[in-house]
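Lecture 7 notes: from sequence to structure.

We start with a single chain of 246 residues. Read the sequence below before looking at the structure.
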Amino acid sequence: MREIIKAEGIITRFGEKVIHNGVDISVKQREIYAILGESGSGKSLLMKEMIMLLTPYAGEIEILGKSLNKISYVDAQKIRADWGVLFQFGALFSSMTIAENIEVQLKEYTNLNKKLRDKLICSKLSLVGLDADVGTLYPSQISGGMVKRAGLARALAMEPKLLFLDEPTSGLDPIGARAFDELIVELRDLLGITVVMITHDLESIYSIVDKMAILADKKIVASGSLDDVLLSTHPFIKSFFKDKIR
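Now the structure, written as tokens:
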């Protein structure tokens, strides 16, 4: 399968403080890929660099065949339409209804008329297991689990090839978290998308993640399948996966 994301030699620093010092990552098409790491290791920073919210101090990131280092404004806008992002707490606009939240990208990136946009909104809500009526509600009027699903519907608005998820199951009860995991796998299989997720949820890691990268000591200390990672003797990995390591 082709490489969807390639990051090489990523250095992230703020003044004298170095967060990443030579990070390499490779994500293949249709993988569910997890980025794990100790607190302060820069997992979210790395994702922000991938979605062009931050620029690394050094190194190169290539996504969907485009180098982010050399990308033009026009190409940057095009590639943003090819990925969707679900932030940790949904990041829905509180002053907009759920439908209006989903509609934001459709207005920005397409010339679809209102009738077609409304049809797409209903389709995306259904795709993530929400009734069309939810579209009329505001984020404050729905549960945390529904907020996550609504945020996912917004992330899927442009039918992306790549989906970024930041702690997708945080704040959910165990039943809701496992249902969300199942939804991610179903969407991957149905839409053929590639998923990159930051997570600490061991059940997610054990049940749905294909490959992963572990951030610690300012670099990737292990990567690959769960079995590959468990071969590492790094202290963070031994502590994090202690129930899997004998």
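The two ends are 33 Å apart (CA to CA). Keep this in mind for problem set 3.
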